Structures are given as structure tokens and as C-alpha cells.
Automatic annotation (TrEMBL):
Interacts with microtubules. The keyword Repeat applies. It comes from Umbra pygmaea (Eastern mudminnow). TPR repeats lie at residues 257-290. Belongs to the RMDN family. Its main location: cytoplasm. Pfam families: RMD1-3. It is found in: Cytoplasm, Cytoskeleton. The lineage of its organism: Eukaryota, Metazoa, Chordata, Craniata, Vertebrata. It comes from the Eukaryota. This is Regulator of microtubule dynamics protein 1.
Length: 309
């Protein structure tokens, strides 16, 4: 076959076969090019002569190799997607230890989707009742490293920002009041960035509300420390916290037992007993799926008793 004839045949083949097919991966579309894409690049890149010198059998072998490689790549992406789906299922079921063991295999991954989930799983595991103080320390700092790596791999990932903020707050418990208050500015910045990237994520909105609540009820001695260290120490009000908690509930009603509890506690702090009872009752009635849900249930009961409800 002459060079011209080969090009005409290749062109006809290209016109009759789609140049690519689209595979949807975690909400994004990634293109998977066929072996014919290589022919097009070779021709348009001025390397036609080199391509034409490849014997027919060698070319067929090259095409087959490319197809195998492309199929392998697609299979790997599909496998990643399956792991993510399995991880999200385990999370929804409260299977914290199984989830952690599943994701730990991907601790060296370059994919932020694995890493932020591993950070969350590490943190959740550290909160379980049977975890020793030494294990909790290791898991807490490990969670922060995974969240940090997730953010490095994908700055546009809202969940990476969210869990970086949460995990940075956690390690502050080990590093003292000065560090914790200093980190609070960074934490708030990352929470606001997470909300900017995904305004419909109720959890990020809730955590920012919790940030406001924490500084609204900051003990006087910690306020004094903050005032000594910072020219403008972090400050917030219960009204600001309430705004975020209500917004989170508006975005995703009844999504989180802790948000219901915090609404009740915020109204208590604002001396609105009637509304506090409403939200604490909802927190008490929330079906407990996790250890945190059980703790929320108990605290809601205790606070309702305190209010005489």
C-alpha cells in the first residue's frame, strides 16, 4: 500500500469512528482517546513518513498495545470509582474501622478524593471509645497529614479544605491555647474557601457556625491570652453562629445530629428557652447511627432536663 493510499484509508476510518468516548468519573468528564487518535497526531504532526515505515504487523501490534494500555487505564479509573463508592457506603453505615482499613491502602495516592476521605476516617477512628490516648494522638496527627496532602494535590477540592480545617483544629488540642487560637484564622479561611467552592455543603457551613460559637463562649482567660498575642484576636457572636447553623439546616434539613444540638445550645446561650427546647428535642429524637450521635443524644437529654423540659 502506498503512503497516499494508507492516509486515505486512515482518514476514512477516522471519519467512521468517534475520536473519543467519554467516561464520567466522580462528576467530572475524562476523555479516553482510541488508538486512531495516535494516527491523527502522527499525520498532523508531520511524522507521516515515520509512521508509514512501520511494517503492517508491527503497526497492528502497536495498535493492540495502545488499546490494552487504554483499557487498563479505564479499568483503573473504574476501580477507583468503585473504591470511592464503597468508602462512602461504609461511612454512611458508620463502619469506621472497616472504612479506615480500606482507605489506608491509598495513603500514598495522588488523588485528593482518597486522601480527604482517609483524613476523615482517621479522625473518626480517633474518636471511638476504645481507642487509647497514644492511638488517638497518632490518628489525629495522621488525619492532618492526609488532609494537608489532599489540599496540596487539589486546591479546588472543597472537602480537602473542610477536613484540613477540622484536622488543624484537632491538633491544636495537643499544642496549647496559643497555637490553637493562632490557627483559628487559618481554620476560618479554609472553611470559607470550602463554602465558596461548594455553597451546598451543609457540613462546612455547620463547622463555620461551630467556629463562631466557640469564640462567642471563649472563657475570659483565653480571651486574655488572645488579646496579649494578637492585635485583633478572633471574635464572634452567638447571633453569627445561629445564622450558620440555620443556614446549614436550610441547605440540608436534619442532616446532622450535632447541628440540631448546636441550634439548641445557641438558643440557650441567647436565653430563648422555647426555641432551645424545640431543637434539643429534635437532637434527642435523631436516630443514632454513630458514636457522635449517641453522645449528642445524651447531651440533648441532659440539657432538656436542665431546662425543665
Amino acid at each position: 500500500m502506498s503512503g497516499a493510499t494508507f492516509i486515505r484509508c486512515a482518514a476514512r476510518t477516522l471519519l467512521s469512528v468517534p475520536a473519543c468516548k467519554t467516561v464520567k468519573i466522580r462528576g467530572y468528564h475524562r476523555q479516553y482517546w482510541t488508538a486512531f487518535r495516535n494516527i491523527t497526531l502522527a499525520i498532523t504532526g508531520g511524522r507521516t513518513a515515520l509512521l508509514l515505515t512501520i511494517p503492517t504487523l508491527s503497526y497492528l501490534g502497536l495498535e493492540a498495545s495502545n488499546r490494552v494500555q487504554n483499557a487498563t487505564a479505564v479499568h483503573a479509573l473504574e476501580k477507583d470509582e468503585e473504591v470511592i463508592e464503597q468508602a462512602d457506603y461504609l461511612y454512611s453505615c458508620g463502619e469506621t474501622e472497616k472504612l479506615y482499613q480500606l482507605l489506608l491502602k491509598y495513603k500514598d495516592s495522588d488523588d485528593a478524593e482518597f486522601l480527604w476521605r482517609l483524613a476523615r476516617a482517621s479522625r473518626d477512628l480517633s474518636l471511638l471509645a476504645h481507642i487509647t490516648a497514644e492511638e488517638k494522638n497518632k490518628l489525629t496527627f495522621g488525619a492532618f497529614e492526609y488532609a494537608k496532602k489532599a489540599l496540596e494535590k487539589n486546591e479546588a477540592c472543597f472537602a480537602a479544605h473542610k477536613w484540613f480545617a477540622v484536622c488543624l483544629s484537632d491538633i491544636g488540642d495537643y499544642e496549647g491555647v496559643k497555637v490553637k487560637i493562632g490557627n483559628s484564622y487559618i481554620i476560618k479561611d479554609h472553611l470559607e474557601r470550602a463554602i465558596e467552592l461548594n455553597p451546598k455543603d451543609a457540613t462546612s457551613i455547620h463547622i463555620l457556625g461551630y467556629w463562631c460559637f466557640a469564640f462567642a463562649e471563649l472563657p475570659w482567660y483565653q480571651r486574655k491570652v488572645a488579646a496579649m498575642i494578637f492585635a485583633s484576636p478572633p471574635n464572634a457572636t452567638y447571633e453569627e453562629a445561629l445564622t450558620f447553623f440555620l443556614k446549614a439546616e436550610e441547605v440540608d434539613p436534619n442532616f446532622y445530629s450535632k447541628n440540631l444540638l448546636m441550634l439548641g445550645k445557641t438558643y440557650m446561650a441567647m436565653k430563648d428557652k422555647e426555641k432551645a427546647v424545640v431543637w434539643l428535642s429534635k437532637a434527642q429524637d435523631y436516630p443514632p447511627h454513630t458514636e457522635e450521635d449517641k453522645q449528642v443524644h445524651k447531651e440533648a437529654i441532659d440539657l432538656l432536663k436542665k431546662l425543665g423540659a
